[in-house]
Amino acid sequence: MSVRVVVADDQELVRGGFSMILDAQPDIEVVAEAGDGAQAVEAVREHHPDLLLLDIRMPVMDGIEAARVVCAESGCRVLMLTTFDLDDYVYDALRAGASGFLLKDVRRDDLVHAVRVVAAGESLLAPSVTTKLIADFTSRAAPSLAAKPSEQFTALTAREQETLRMIARGLSNAEIAQAMVVSEHTVKTHVSNVLTKLGLRDRVQAVIAAYEGGMTVPGDPR
Question: Where is the Response regulatory domain (predicted)?
């Protein structure tokens, strides 16, 4: 089955270029394009795509609000486009439900890979953007983090709490498995349990929960 994608960007050349790259893939189908945030929301409602590739800065309805509406109304994943790797709106977009970020000058292969990864249910904690953004924006948005973890984490086992801390550091499943000396299958189970018990959509939301709930703080070496 093809990954169904809506591409939303107010710059026609950018939008068309991304659409052309993605549509050329045998497993990806661009089902609609949108020139503003409101059109993006309507396109998702009409076409029920697997993923919305969405510019963070959009006219009529900005990308953050569009992402919030789409994530609240559907199971469509949102992959944000940003011009700068420290965009002031990225943290808000994460909280709105975005599952990853790409710079607009992303390479062709990285764009295709990102769409496949996010559409498959993973989060794009790309080294080029998201890992440093999470630490930066969570520290700015929540400077008075709790001295000890929030009570919401008491439902997690010790292993699940440690898994959450490692997710917050941007570690992959393979890296977590190596650090914990367990199999990747076990790590996937821990990750799934963390998301389920905390009522989280994906790994990006898990990272935010870890920082905001005091499970970890920027610079925490654990």
Answer: 4-119
- Report d(CA 193, CA 207) in Å as an integer: 15
pLDDT in tens, 32-57: 999 999 999 999 999 999 999 999 98
| Domains assigned to the chain | 3-129 (3.40.50.2300), 142-212 (1.10.10.10)
The CA-CA-CA angle for residues 24, 40, 135, to 5°, reads: 90
